[in-house]
């Protein structure tokens, strides 16, 4: 029994030596290729990103090209590892090409996301930092990657949309133009002086330094409502000042109307006793 055990151990050791002799260098070479490929997949995309940033290339383009470069290097590394073990990469590529149609049909969604990412990169309807509304979601664009677009809402909730959805939807980009128009609708009582109310509104708008002179602000009577005379105020400002102008002037209009004794009608609830 002991002799048989010694024989099995010797046979196992001999087989192990044969494997190491035959494939040892290939395994070591494959490991070295993987290590080098992994290092290169980090160095080259980072270097490319730094170079493009120095040249002022759009951040969206930089991130997309960085992701694409890293993926390409990893694929090349995998092919080199297979070649190290004697796999004919040319034949493998031919087989993959033949199977490409079936894979493409199975991964239609994924490939359409890549195509959507390419279209977003080429036409650039959105850029990193833009505030947009797309597919029913509104937020600031954080990144456009190979497969997805990442956004953050005003309260900093992450939204990740497939690129195909972004490209296939109507995109409302609030940051595309340098200026935006802020609209207000102020209602006054029929007993109040319309001209006085309009003068108060115009004075407050012109006093705000964020209000642009060209296009000029507009203050007009837009509607005779059921219980109020409605005055529309339109103010142009820089896109980044939109919400500040909106909030500050709304507060200023109410406070100044109170000082000038101009009433703002509002619904009254009347209690009826039996």
Features:
single chain; 274 residues; alpha+beta; Helix Hairpins; SH3 type barrels; Alpha-Beta Plaits; 3 domains; five-stranded antiparallel sheet; three-stranded antiparallel sheet; 7 helices; rod-shaped
* Top CATH class of the largest domain: Mainly Alpha
Mean pLDDT level: 82
Quantity of strands, as a count: 8
* Helix/strand order: HHHHEEEEHEEHEEH
Low-confidence stretches: none
Summed up, the domain count is 3
Task: Characterize the structure shown.
The structure is a single chain. The chain is an alpha+beta fold and 274 residues long. It has three domains: 2-106, Helix Hairpins (Orthogonal Bundle), CATH 1.10.287; 125-173, SH3 type barrels; 179-259, Alpha-Beta Plaits (2-Layer Sandwich), CATH 3.30.70. Helix content is 55%, strand content 19%. The chain contains seven helices and eight strands, in the order ααααββββαββαββα. The chain has helices at residues 2-54, 59-84, 89-106, 108-123, 163-167, 194-207, 242-259; strands at residues 131-134, 137-144, 148-152, 158-162, 171-173, 179-188, 218-224, 229-238. The protein has a five-stranded antiparallel beta sheet. It has a three-stranded antiparallel beta sheet with strand order 6-8-7, with helices on one face. Helix 1 packs antiparallel against helix 2 (59-84) and helix 6 (194-207) crosses helix 7. The longest helix is centred in the N-terminal third of the chain and has 53 residues, at 2-54. The protein is rod-shaped and about 110 Å long. The N and C termini lie far apart (109 Å). The model has no long low-confidence stretch (mean pLDDT 82).
């Amino acid at each position: 029994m002991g002799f048989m055990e010694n024989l099995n151990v010797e046979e196992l050791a001999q087989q192990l030596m044969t494997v190491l002799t035959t494939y040892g260098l290939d395994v070591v070479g494959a490991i070295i290729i993987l290590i080098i490929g992994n290092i290169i997949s980090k160095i080259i995309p980072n270097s490319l990103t730094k170079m493009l940033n120095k040249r002022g290339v759009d951040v969206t383009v930089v991130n997309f090209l960085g992701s694409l470069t890293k993926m390409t290097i990893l694929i090349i590394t995998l092919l080199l590892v297979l070649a190290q073990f004697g796999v004919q990469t040319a034949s493998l590529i031919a087989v993959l090409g033949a199977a490409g149609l079936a894979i493409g049909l199975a991964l239609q969604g994924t490939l359409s996301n890549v195509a959507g990412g390419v279209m977003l990169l080429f036409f650039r309807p959105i850029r990193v930092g833009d505030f947009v509304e797309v597919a029913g979601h509104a937020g600031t664009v954080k990144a456009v990657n190979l497969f997805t677009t990442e956004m953050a809402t005003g309260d900093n909730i992450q939204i990740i949309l497939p690129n195909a959805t972004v490209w296939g939807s109507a995109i409302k980009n609030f940051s595309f133009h340098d200026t935006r128009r802020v609209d207000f609708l102020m209602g006054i009582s029929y007993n109040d002086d319309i001209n006085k109310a309009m003068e108060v509104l115009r004075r407050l708008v012109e006093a705000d330094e964020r209000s642009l002179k060209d296009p000029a602000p507009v203050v007009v009577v837009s509607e005779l409502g059921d219980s109020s005379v409605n005055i529309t105020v339109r103010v142009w400002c820089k896109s980044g000042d939109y919400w500040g102008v909106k909030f500050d002037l709304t507060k200023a209009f109410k406070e100044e109307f109170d000082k000038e004794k101009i009433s703002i009608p509002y619904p009254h609830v009347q209690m009826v006793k039996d």
